[in-house]
Amino acid sequence: xxxxxGRNTLRFFDACIQLxxxxxxxxxxxxxxxxxxxxxxxxxxxxxxxxxxxVGAEVLLRWYHPERGPVSPTxxxxxxxxxxxxxxxxxxxxxxxxxTLRRWADHPALSRLTLSVNVSARQFLExxxxxxxxxxxxxxxxxxxxxxxxxxxxxLAHDVADIVEKMGTLRERGVRFSLDDxxxxxxxxxxxxxxxxxxxxxxxxxxxxxxxxxxxxxxxxIILSLAQNLGLSVTAEGVETAGQLDxxxxxxxxxxQGFLFGHPVPVAAxxxxxxxxx
Length: 278
Ligand code: C2E
Ligand code: MG
Ligand code: MG
Ligand code: MG
Known about the structure:
Layout: H1 2-36, E1 40-49, E2 54-65, E3 69-71, H2 73-83, H3 86-104, E4 114-118, H4 121-124, H5 129-140, E5 147-151, H6 160-172, E6 176-182, H7 189-194, E7 199-202, H8 204-208, H9 214-230, E8 233-236, H10 242-250, E9 255-256, E10 265-266, H11 267-272
Parallel strand pairs: 2-4, 4-5, 5-6, 6-7, 7-8, 8-9
Antiparallel strand pairs: 1-2, 1-9, 1-10, 2-3
The chain binds ligand C2E and magnesium ion (MG) (3 copies).
């Protein structure tokens, strides 16, 4: 009967939800263990200037699980954010980044580079986040001027005064800030003016079709002129072709990141690719 069929359908959905919950729990357990067992690594993706010279890198978290293989951050970062695991994970990434900066400090070419670290809203909103960063910087001996923190627009749904204060504490010590994935979130232009930012990152969503889609081209241009008016620098994300680069350059973008210049690679491989100055 229809009723029995309905019940079966319900049971089927229950089973599906149960399965999804089990999978999520298993992934969460594996992630927690992965951090403890040394399965995490940072990769670095070059950021280049107009001359094509590498000026820094974005730090991207990688997880290699012995059975699952590589798990994408687009899969495990949202899980880490909702479970709170992003707090120890984020600290680990900051420590790795600062240790790397310290190792580079005496190198003729690497010592000039900045590292950009992604910071989740959940991390930044911890009451002592600014203190955590300063402690990690001090313990590692890294120069704060070489550290950049990438924030996302989701942060702006929270107490802006508190955000501005933490940013101010860190900026006083030389740490810089960029707003990641700009244009995809819900920040109002008013917030943009209040935040002590150094840089906007144009999301790769807009860069992708900048040559074929007039709307994306307009958005990219608007972001670039907005940044110029606010005195912010801009890094374009996801630059894959020479055509995209030409467009961005012609419209005033001075810094780029994307597969055209380099994929995220292990730290040693990144270091090997930086030529010594003449
Ligand atoms: P994101 O911060 O916007 O990082 C840029 C993403 O774009 C990276 O993906 C990078 O590999 C990818 N990408 C770079 N250039 C290109 C390109 O030319 N074409 C294409 N198609 N993709 C490109 P990934 O490494 O998978 O990271 C995804 C997201 O996960 C990051 O987006 C960031 O939001 C988050 N994430 C990664 N590492 C961390 C971390 O340590 N902490 C936090 N909180 N989030 C992280
Ligand atoms: Mg980023
Ligand atoms: Mg981004
Ligand atoms: Mg992005």
